C-alpha cells in the first residue's frame, strides 16, 4: 500500500489561494478516479476538484471555510502500489497538520458556546462515527405533562437547566418524573424526542433562547466582500422614474399569443435589455468599467449585460454577452439560460465575468422603490420594480394603466446626474412607445 497526495491545483489567472467550500468525501471513504472530492472557490467561480486515482481517504488537509494556498495538500489517500508521497515535495509538517485536522476528537465538538464561537472559522473535520454508536431509543410520545400552578418554577438541577437552554427547550413545558416533579436529563430527552405537550400556556408565546452560529463562507463570503467593496469605493447616486408600460404589456401578450408556442414566451426582461442597448448608444459613458486604482475608465461598444440572479447560495450576476446583437427571443433565451446556469453552477468563467452594466429585477417582489448596489467595477445598474395597475389621468380621463418604476444607481465619479437622468428617460421613452424598440 502507498500514500497518494492530491494538492490544490493551479487554477490560473494568477490565483494564489482558494477557499474550501465543500467536501464531497469523508475520512475512511473509498473514492474512484475522476470522482469529485471537494469544491473550492476563487474570486471568479467555484471549481470542482476531482480525484486522480482509486483509493481510501485517510486525511483531509483543511476544513470548510479555510483559505488554502495553491499547491498545498488538499487530501491524502491510501492506494494500491507506491503512491506519490515519496516523490512529493511536501514537508512532513503538512502531513501532521492534515492528520491533526482530520483526526480531531469528537469531544471538541461539545465545547462550550463561547469556545465554539472563538474557533468557528476553522471547525474540526471529524472521522465518521463507527457502527458501535449507541442505538437510538424507540420512538415514543413524551410523558404527559402535569399542569403546574401559574408562575410556578419547574424543579431541575443546574446542569439540566443549562442543557435545556442549549436545546432551546422551555422547562415549563416538560413533565418531571422525579420527586416533587423534578425534571431529569431523561425527562428532557423524552420531551425533545416526542415534543411533549404544553404545560399551562400556548407554546407559540413562550420565550425562546436558541442561537445558531453560521460561518460566512463560500459564495456568501464573496457576496459580502463584493457588496462591502462596492459601497466603500463607489459614491452611489440613485434615480427613480415611473414608466407606463401599458402598451408594452399589450405587445408582449400579443407576441406570446402568436409566437409563444414556437419561439418561447417573452417576459419583460428582454424588452428592458433591448431598451438599455439602444439607450446606451446615446450614453456610452454608462456602458463602462472604472478602474479606480489606475484612474482609468474603459468604455465598451459591446453590451455585456449582467443579469442579477438569486440562487440557493445567494446572489450571482451571470453575463449575457453581446446583448446588442440579440433580438427579443434570442435575448429571452439567453437570459433564461444564464440565470438557470447560475442556479445549477454550470456556467463557464466567461459567463460569470466581464459584464459592463447590470439589470436587476425581483419580479413580483420588486416593491415600489429600491436602491440597487452597483456591481463594481461597473458604473451603473438598472433596477426594475413590480408592475401594478393604477388609475391615471390621461387626456382628461381617468383610466387604468400598467405602471412600473425603474430604480437605478450610478457611480457619481464617472456619471453626472444629468446624464443618468437622461439615460433613464431614454429607456422610459422606448418602453412607453415599444415600436421604437424595433427601430435601429
UniProtKB/TrEMBL annotation:
Cited PROSITE patterns: BIOTINYL_LIPOYL, LIPOYL, PSBD
Cofactor or coenzyme needed: (R)-lipoate
Lipoyl-binding domain span: 3-78
Keyword Acyltransferase among record annotations: yes
Extent of Low complexity compositional bias: 125-146
Superkingdom of the source species: Bacteria
UniProt entry keywords in alphabetical sequence: Acyltransferase, Lipoyl, Transferase
This protein's record includes keyword DNA damage: no
This enzyme's EC code(s): 2.3.1.-
Enzyme class: transferase
PANTHER family reported in the protein's UniProt record: DIHYDROLIPOAMIDE ACETYLTRANSFERASE COMPONENT OF PYRUVATE DEHYDROGENASE COMPLEX, LIPOAMIDE ACYLTRANSFERASE COMPONENT OF BRANCHED-CHAIN ALPHA-KETO ACID DEHYDROGENASE COMPLEX, MITOCHONDRIAL
Entry's family note: Belongs to the 2-oxoacid dehydrogenase family.
Subunit structure: Forms a 24-polypeptide structural core with octahedral symmetry.
Name of the protein: Dihydrolipoamide acetyltransferase component of pyruvate dehydrogenase complex
Organism: Comamonas denitrificans
